[in-house]
Design a protein that fits this description.
heterodimer, A: about 170 residues, mainly alpha, Four Helix Bundle (Hemerythrin (Met), subunit A), 7 helices, B: about 475 residues, two-stranded antiparallel ribbon, 21 helices, globular
Chain lengths: ~170, ~475
Amino acid sequence: MTAPLIIFFVLAALAVGGALSLIFQKHPIHSALSLIVVMVALAGLYLLLGAEFVAAVQIIVYGGAIMVLFVFVIMLLNAGIEEHTNFSKLAGFPGLLLAFALTGFIAATIARSTDTVQAASQPGNMASTRDLSTMIFKDFVYPFELTSFLILVAVLGAIVLAQREKA
Amino acid sequence: MFPRTDDLLRALPELIWCGFGMLAMLLQPFVRSRHFFTGLALVGAVGGTGAAFVAGATPGEGFYGLIESDVFSFFFRLLVGLVAVLVVLAADSYLERENLPFAEFYALLLFATAGMGVLASARELLTAFIGLELSSISSYILAGFRRDSTKSSEASLKYFLLGSFATAFFLYGIALVYGATGTTNLGRMDDADPGSNLLKLGLSLILIGIGFKVAAAPFQIWTPDVYEGAPTPVTALFSAGPKAAAFALLLRIFASVPAATHFWFWAFWVLAALTMFAGNLGALLQTNVKRLLAYSSIAHAGYILVAFAAVTFMANDLNGGATPAYAAVLFYLLSYALVKIGAFTIVSEIGGWGEKNLTLDDYAGLAQRQPVAAAALSLYLLSLLGLPVTAGFFGKFYIFKAAVNSHLIWLAVLMAINSIIGAYYYLRVIVVMYMREGSAEAMAAAPVRFPVAVNVVLAVTAIGTVYFGLFPNQVLNFILQPNLIAH
């Protein structure tokens, strides 16, 4: 086992463990803290792939800004421990079973696939910040600009759904 | 770096829709007039639709192969643009009646339309994903637009949670397809290895994501609740626009990725059969007209999926054997959009303040109280049923023919059985309107006066339904081109 492989497994285990904890924690703050673990582990995985810029952005934007917002919102809403109805507990069983079935199916398919991963044969174009910016602002400028409309819609939606009732 | 002029022209409809959406947002604090914003939205919707002609006149790929301006995207841009225009007209009086913020409504509607336009023209999966999200997120918000109604909020939340879940599948599918082929550009997947497990897995996850958006069984559970809870003009939009756009993406994937086409045959067979039965059997039990139409829209997604099964089956045929099946899908989506918008507009007007009159009992005696509305609704229902002289007949006929030509006899039989089940509940509504006496209270009440804009919607949809029912060839000759989808 090579060193990168070992690091990969450690980070992957952290990410999956953090994600599971995120779902199973009862208190929203604990869930939010678990999310940080996921974000940081993902940043580590990006580093491992040689995408330094994406890793840094992941930490700054997700680990920093977005997490602070999450924690603030949870505190402002004073969200307590989540409640479970009998029905939601009951629904958990088939849900868990199906989740295992799907994960098992995807894992088995990927494990059995003998074909080479094509995307891995072109590592160069995501590596440096320069290449990445060429890609975002030249090749993919159209979806990039559309993303700003996507965010605009989200902001508009938040205002529409949360604004105070007119007198 | 500024994009080339041709690139901008090829994306002009979306740019105009987005631009007018922003304009509505910017002017909202300064202008209080509802008529002004309705006019603005109308100009934007019509302008974008008109720009589809400009985009159509500059064929070719734009933005480094991310979008494609061909006959196919031209058709779907016209379709979603027409849907947007009709929904603006239908929503005008509704927004006033329910006292809802109009500028925000129109902005979201235009952004959603732009998203659908992107979906119709995208030739690259990430661009398609952004388009899908643009239309979906606007839809989630529009579904919850009546904030004082718990049903509307429930619809919004349900749609949002389930929709995000489906989006995750779609995105994971894209990641796996990228892993298998090394590109997200559909135009460069020609030589993808059809035997690759990774590719198959990715394609099936993409199918799940799109299956949710078009309300195919078993991903249809959200449809009745969301359609019932959403403001009725929004329901009209949901049943016509996003569905057509999602089907457009699915067709584009077929045309570009040969590996997808064969692999999906049985998936479509099963999806089509399940969806038809889920929709039609569910509709039998409904007494709420809005829910009934929601189930009927699931059923119709099933009929369209029959054509998809036919497309996948004929993909081996090198002589363009799949072309009639493609054309069947396009024609069906057009006829279906006209009818559903017309029907939901009537439901919206009859519903009255707070959407109170939605049950079948409220439609009793409608023929005496409001003969024109009853006649129009009957026409729409007969088109949904697939009676001759309506566009719905030819829609169903072409799909049926495509299925039979592909030797999918069993699927064609299932489709016929489902059409018969459908006849029961469509005719039941007509019988209630014409044969049953309304309650004394309802008969005494003054008939609902339809505003001019609503009458325009009804006229356009009714005339369109009859016109395409008599002269389907005008559309078909346009669709039946060998270079419908650019390769």
